[in-house]
Amino acid sequence: MYTEDYKREDFPYKNFLLKFIIIIIVVAILVCIVTAISKKNQNIEPEGYTDEIFSENLEKMKEHAIKYYNENNIPNEVGESSKLTLEKMISLKAITPIKDKDNKLCDNKKSYVKLTKKDKEYQLKVNLFCSGEEDYITAHLNNNSYCKDTYLCEIKSETIDNEKDKNEEESTDIEESNIENNFSNSIIKSSKIKKTTTTKKKKVRKTKVTSKTQKGTIKVKNTTDNYIYEYIKTSNVVFSDWSLWSNWVTVDCNTSAITCNNNDKTCLKELKRLDRKEKLNKYNTYKSQKTSLINNANITTGACTNYNYIKVDGIIYQLASSTDYKQVNNINKNTRKNVGSWIYNGRASYDVPPTDTYNTHYVLVDADYSNCGNTCTKSPKYIYDKYTYGKTITRVSSYICNKNKSQTIPIYNKKIETITFSRNEEFYATVCYKSERTRKIINNGSSITKWSKYNDKNLLNKGYYYTGNKKKK
Questions:
Q1: CA-based R_g, the chain, Å
Q2: How many alpha carbons lie under 13 Å from residue 168 in its C-beta half-sphere?
Q3: How far apart are CA 138 and CA 65, in angstroms?
Q4: Per-position b or e across 348-374, b if 16+ CB within 10 A of its CB
Q5: What is the pLDDT of residue 369?
Q6: Tens of pLDDT along 102-137?
Q7: Which end of the chain is more exposed for a tag (fewer CB within 10 A), N or C?
Q8: CA angle, corner 163, sides to 158 and 164, nearest 5?
Q9: Under 8 Å between Cβ of 111 and 61
Q10: Interval 335-364 mean pLDDT
């Protein structure tokens, strides 16, 4: 009776528990299915794909930086660096634009490579900035005998691995020797003999698909089966040898020197500048103005019988003989003596050209440079011969008097004359020279694009590299 009651009470409990477990399992399966469908509909990239593309782009920049540097453009002094932005590498045709996983271009200015000369090697830093994310890798380079297609290549670590394996072998032998010393029976000795005669297998290092960066190790997962990737192979432009430098010729001092990069096919001419102080001969021209009286007209009118008349700058003058006055027209710089009633007063130097009056006349002879050095800062002085009218000449208001006759009266008017002198002067100035050389393009280079699976060794070994573009198969 007791046994039957116990079984009747226990059986419903077990049945309920079994049903509850089955319900939990079914719910868990449904949750997994819904989650998988949701991820597929959202077209979520597989985890690790972003790191994979970023790592590939870092490696791409590293490979092309190694190809770019040669014995002509690497730093030579310890501590010296050479930095190239991604923008500069693209302009030099050393690499094509890099895109991130969303097919957006990486930052050309914040992404760069930097080669630094160390004591016994070169350190290459590759920094990449894409869509707000930034990371870098470093590589140790040198010019070694095993470098094939580039002047610099990565330093191999085989020597380090071999030394590590050798140390491990020595450690194993020491441990076995300790075992031998602790046990003296013949069974252990025979066991030792067997161990020492066994051929030791060489330790094999397996390479993981990772990339060490500043932020840590990026693990690259195999999520590439559903995509094909774009590869590109470029060859640099080929130039002729530079021509010889041309002879030095003068050039405008605003002309800039030109130095070409080795791979810049837009730069086919180089120019050197030479500037120096030189003594020059130059004709400088100096101009000034003088006011002279010129007999440029005559009038015939009734005038007082006992006198002669002239009219100067609109004013009437009375004198003994107008013909005697008109002799002023025959005076020049070679005269230097009395002419009629005009008296020669000598030669003098004037800062400002003098002006003729009704009874004074000046004749220009030459320029006086005694106040100048190699050049005149303003103008030279001027040398004139001076003449004065020696007879009585009186200003009157009219030609008319009580007894008149018809007379021809000369008229003198003021005329402004421009005086010009030129002088060959010596002074020093900067003279600029140029020398040029040119080159030609023999081959413009090429760019070949192919699509293939991820990590296609056949293409990579032929010099192709990833562009960062992908598409579904």
A1: 53
A2: 11
A3: 12
A4: eeeeebbebebbebbbbbebbbeebee
A5: 85
A6: 888 899 999 999 999 998 899 999 999 998 889 999
A7: N
A8: 95
A9: yes
A10: 93
CA triplet 38, 41, 43: central angle to 5 degrees? 110
Taking CB atoms within 8 Å and a gap of at least 24, the contacts of 363-370 are: 363/331, 363/332, 363/333, 363/335, 363/387, 364/290, 364/333, 364/419, 365/333, 366/333, 366/421, 367/286, 367/421, 367/423, 369/423
Which residue carries 């930097």 as its tokens?
Answer: 114
Q: List all residues 6 or more positions away from 371 whose beta carbon is below 8 Å from its beta carbon.
A: 380, 381
Positive or negative: CA dihedral 76, 80, 81, 82 = negative
Specify the length of the chain in residues: 473
Mean pLDDT value across residues 300-323: 90
Tell me if 371 sits within 8 A of 380, measured CB to CB: yes
DSSP 87: H
- Name the β-bridge partners of 310: 317
The helix or strand, by DSSP H or E, that contains position 423, with its residue range, turns out to be strand 404-438
Residue type, 87: E
Q: By C-alpha distance, which of 274, 253, 258 is closest to 439?
A: 258
CB 294 within 8 A of CB 412: yes
Residue 382: how many CA atoms within 13 Å on its side-chain side?
24
What are 358's two structure tokens?
């009704």
Written as six digits, the tokens of 306 are: 């006992």
Helix (H) or strand (E) holding 346: strand 342-350
Looking up tokens 């413009």, which residue turns up?
A: 444
